[in-house]
Write a structure and sequence with these properties.
About 45% of the residues lie in helices and about 10% in strands. With about 260 residues, it is α/β, with parallel strands linked by helices.
């Protein structure tokens, strides 16, 4: 794990928080290798004689390369993108001398992965309580999430997030998303705050740390699995946490300060 030097943790809360949704509030897309291996095992008979793990590894490698270079528009077509990445993984296996696997099988595997991911989503323990505590401390809250409008809005409703936030900002509904600067500027404008008053919290180093810091926002990276910064990373979050609960002031802190916001 790469080591990092961070600014001292701030106990006092800010005037506003911009909070990511997927893999920050909800366990949604983290650890894809586990999901791909699970799905490949379900299709073991059709993949034979290829071992499911080998198929999962090839698909995951193709998917990671795809998303590292994909245009933002693909976030609006997640199901289609998954079909494309499974076909790409199958093609890579065939290029290495393995038997050709059909596009039909690729599409069915990709679609099953999509339903599996949606079925497996859950709210991280303590996340609702933490958000409610921020609100009780008069922190203005914006949910800022990338992705397609229908899919992301469904999660907002399914996991009872709408009433917890003063502003809901979904990429597919607004026409722009992270890491575009206007995504953060628009959210702050909606809350009526400036960068000096604001924290950004999320799991993506580029989206929740690099651009927010450039705008003067205090950037908090959530590392749910405790894996640390990627080896060789030059990104330095202002703080690293493993859950939103770590940001909730304890009662003694709140009572001793007797002031609403950090400046």
């Amino acid at each position: 794990m790469a080591m990092t030097t961070m600014k001292p943790a701030i106990k006092q809360l800010p005037r506003a928080m911009l909070i990511d949704m997927d893999d920050t509030i909800l366990s949604a897309y983290g650890r894809p290798e586990i999901a791909w291996n699970t799905i490949a095992e379900e299709f073991a008979d059709e993949l034979a004689p290829l071992p499911p793990r080998e198929v999962a590894t090839a698909v995951l490698a193709y998917a990671r390369n795809f998303w590292a270079n994909a245009e933002a528009a693909w976030r609006m077509k997640l199901g289609e993108a998954r079909r494309l990445t499974v076909r790409g993984g199958f093609a890579a296996l065939a290029a290495n001398g393995h038997r050709a696997l059909s596009d039909d099988l690729a599409d069915r595997l990709a679609d099953r992965f999509t339903t599996y991911r949606e079925e497996a989503i859950f709210v991280f323990p303590g996340a609702h309580d933490a958000i409610d505590a921020f609100k009780a401390h008069d922190v203005k809250l914006a949910l800022v999430t990338n992705g397609a409008a229908e899919m992301q809005r469904a999660k907002v409703e399914r996991f009872e997030l709408a009433h917890r936030f003063d502003h809901i900002q979904i990429e597919g509904e607004h026409g722009f998303g992270k890491p575009e600067e206007r995504a953060y500027l628009h959210a702050m404008e909606a809350l009526g705050v400036s960068a000096n008053d604001t924290w950004m919290i999320g799991d993506n180093l580029e989206w929740e740390v690099v651009t927010p810091q450039r705008l003067g926002i205090y950037a908090i990276w959530i590392d749910v699995h405790g894996e640390g910064l990627p080896e060789g990373s030059t990104v330095r979050p202002d703080r690293i946490i493993r859950s939103l609960s770590e940001l909730v002031p304890d009662r003694s802190d709140a009572e001793s300060r007797k002031q609403p916001h950090a400046q």
